Write the structure tokens for this entry.
Amino acid sequence: MPEVSRSQVVVYAAIAVALLLIGARAIRGEGSTDASFAAADTGGSKGGGFSVSGQSGDLVVDVTGAVGRPGVYRLPAGSRVDDAVRRAGGPTAKAELEAINLAARLADGQQVVVPERLAAGAAAAVGAAAEDGPISLGTATVEQLEEIDGIGPVTAGDIVDFRDEHGGLSSVDQLDQVPGIGPATMEALRERLQP
């Protein structure tokens, strides 16, 4: 039997390791078409997490507010706001789920904000202060939006529908996509609304 040199042993070992990795990947791929895994987020977010996936049609969304694990998550295309909330650990006991549309389809790069319930006394104080201060874009009602100069009942309804379809809005500037809102109306909205 011929003698095997040290460099030949290294080459054979590298080939064996490569074959093992290819075999393991093939075996793992048979059970699943999604090569995803979850990893803890070590960044500056509030203990959130993220998930990495091999599929190119995935969406990346930021889930924040009254959820168990706020953070940035990767979800399959076609996912709903409810899927994002559940991926982020589900709603907390203080979550005001009635304020968001859980059935809305997610868009890539969207932020989903789950607001917290207000105490009864705080709700009355907020209601009284709402006339003077800015209105929250995430929870504004049609009636509150109608109080803004240049916004009638139809446009107010369109804004609420647009917000619900997109699972919430992270910026007032996104409202320029709503039909019937021009530059003058956008200025009035910027003055009276907050994200």
